[in-house]
Design brief:
Blueprint lengths: L7 H7 L23 E4 L5 E3 L11 E2 L3 H16 L8 H5 L6 H9 L3 H11 L3 H7 L3 H4 L12 H14 L15 E5 L3 H12 L3 E6 L7 H4 L8 H13 L3 E4 L5 H10 L2 E4 L15 E2 L2 E2 L13 E3 L10 H19 L23 H5 L19 H8 L14 H8 L24 E3 L9 H8 L7 E3 L6 E3 L6 H4 L4 H7 L5 E3 L5
Parallel strand pairs: 4-5, 4-7, 5-6, 7-10
Antiparallel strand pairs: 1-2, 1-3, 8-9, 11-14, 12-13
The protein binds iron/sulfur cluster (3 copies).
């Protein structure tokens, strides 16, 4: 029984039913603006915002049906129609391993080399290797290119990896506790090594089998020693072995052994590379270029076999093979845990495309002017000083709050289409970066008013307010004062309460 005067949304939530909302914060008065919390009154059939209704005796409410879902989706699409921002940066979206490049850059620019490596190694098993040979599709997508030249992402990643390899006590990620499961990985090239690395970190023991006596696959055979010194590859493979990955080298797998491996392993990852004989005789379904799998999961039918790299489709791009190894590891992990095998999810991503010339200055506010730094000699890496300087050229195109932003999470959950109500002319992005702890980006604001209410409540001198009227209303600090003046007492509290990345912490937690 709900107490007299209770907010309907709270009552529904207390029953364990999820009701989405963005503009509601219990401790302050609600503006009822986002319309995400709508529910249906069964008697009248009306769709109503549950944050502004009192629960009363005899109410008969439908918290979710097709109409409610559609109303919430449309509400999100309206919010997105005016919203300008990128959740993930273009470089990260283009990287086949989906590495968090802007975060790596922020850490390198501050000289936090170890922390940067932790970020890199989450997605990339062989950073020193890839930092030397990758053709860097991420740099092709780098926003900085529209101003002068792309950030030297690949050399920055190489530095993070090399810095670690050169250290006396190099860093090793800690694998999860053992699941007791055993995975056989056939092929010790970039795809197989990446899959084994990720699976071992997830707690599944991996045995990597390769017909060659030395691991590395195409990295050894197809890359010159000048470009990739064998010692670099050797040390990064030693790191993978040190995690617990077992290697059985110089061992051919024929059809009979493949059958035996299927019996003795909980899952198999086939990463044999191109031109390897035998795979065609293992009884796997083939198409003209390679083995046939489910596109998103790399799984062969509903078996325990997953296939990655050139065994699927010939490719020369080591980073693509490595990215596939990582993605397949995610699917294998789902399989070993008895979950539905759906593959690595890609969350909703707000994107706005190219920077307008008028936005260059805004994006340069957090960045250093200056041309891309090159190593003294071709083939060499950057020095630590150069790395800090080059990383500081990054424009930070990602959103600092992308892990918590409710606009993103709900847009994903409700399948919102950012283009449905898209206006013809987009608003320009601006960045208010004067505050030492938070950034304000008005183009990401959904005008929920939470910052206005909170700064009123905590008696900020200026605080935030609604400026203007009607459709042209914006949220900002009154009297053209800076964010630093507006948020003197509760900046972090306001950043954490903002439902989007409009007001966000400058330094995100790792
Ligand atoms: S505010 Fe949310 S939806 Fe917008 S760019 Fe940031 S994370 Fe994405
Ligand atoms: S400027 Fe930085 S965040 Fe933006 S695309 Fe380039 S590397 Fe990525
Ligand atoms: S900046 Fe203020 S009004 Fe805009 S989304 Fe964040 S909390 Fe809401």
């Amino acid at each position: 029984m709900a107490a007299e005067g209770s907010v309907l949304m709270e009552v529904i939530r207390d029953m364990g039913i999820e009701v989405p909302s963005m503009c509601y914060l219990k401790e302050v008065e609600s503006f009822t603006s986002c319309m995400l919390c709508v529910v249906k009154d069964r008697k009248s059939g009306k769709i109503l915002p549950s944050c502004s209704l009192e629960a009363v005796e005899g109410m008969d409410i439908i918290s979710m049906d097709d109409e409610v879902r559609e109303a919430r989706k449309s509400a999100l699409e309206l919010l997105l129609s005016e919203h300008v921002g990128d959740c993930e940066a273009p470089c990260q979206l283009t990287c086949p391993a989906h590495m968090d490049i802007p975060l790596m850059n922020r850490l390198l620019a501050e000289g936090k080399f170890h922390e940067a490596l932790v970020v890199v190694k989450k997605d990339i098993a062989l950073p020193s290797v890839l930092g030397r040979i990758c053709p860097a599709p991420c740099e092709g997508a780098c926003r900085r290119k529209s101003i002068d030249q792309a950030v030297s992402i690949c050399l920055l990643k190489r530095f993070a990896g090399d810095h670690d390899l050169e250290a006396d006590m190099s860093w090793m990620p800690i694998p999860a506790s053992s699941s007791g499961k055993k995975v056989s990985v056939i092929g010790a090239g970039p795809a197989g090594l990446a899959a084994a690395y990720q699976l071992e970190l997830m707690g599944h023991h991996c045995l990597v089998i390769d017909r060659n006596k030395i691991a590395g696959g195409s990295l050894r055979k197809e890359v010159s020693p000048e470009e990739l010194p064998p010692v670099v590859l050797k040390r990064e493979i030693e790191h993978i072995a040190a995690l617990g990955v077992e290697f059985r080298l110089g061992s051919e797998v024929d059809a009979k052994q493949f059958l035996e491996l299927q019996k003795s392993s909980d899952a198999i990852v086939v990463a044999t590379g191109k031109g390897e004989s035998g795979v065609g005789a293992w009884g796997l379904p083939m198409h003209p270029k390679g083995v046939e799998v489910h596109g998103k999961t790399y799984r062969v039918g509903d078996t325990a076999v997953f296939v990655v790299g050139s065994a699927l489709k010939p490719s020369k791009l080591a980073i693509r093979a490595l990215g596939q190894g990582k993605e397949a590891a995610f699917s294998v992990d789902q399989f070993l845990k008895g979950q539905a095998v759906t593959g690595e999810p890609r969350l909703f991503n707000s994107r706005f495309g190219k920077l307008d010339r008028a936005e260059y200055a805004e994006y340069l506010k957090e960045s250093k002017e200056g041309e891309r730094l090159e190593p003294a000699q071709k083939g060499e890496g950057l020095t630590a000083e150069q790395v800090m300087e080059e990383a500081a050229r990054c424009l930070h195109c990602d959103c600092r709050d992308l892990k918590n932003c409710r606009l993103r999470l709900y847009s994903d959950a409700y399948g919102a289409d950012q283009k449905r109500f898209k206006s013809e002319v987009r608003q320009l992005c601006t960045k208010q970066v004067q505050h030492k702890e938070v950034i304000y980006e008005p183009s990401k604001c959904i005008k929920c008013g939470i910052c206005v209410r909170l700064t009123e409540k905590y008696k900020e001198d200026f605080g935030f307010t609604f400026i203007g009227r009607g459709f042209d209303v914006v949220v900002g600090v009154p009297f053209n004062e800076s964010t630093a003046e507006g948020l003197k007492k509760v900046a972090l509290e306001v950043a954490d309460a903002c439902p989007t990345g409009a007001i966000s912490r400058k330094i995100e937690s790792l």
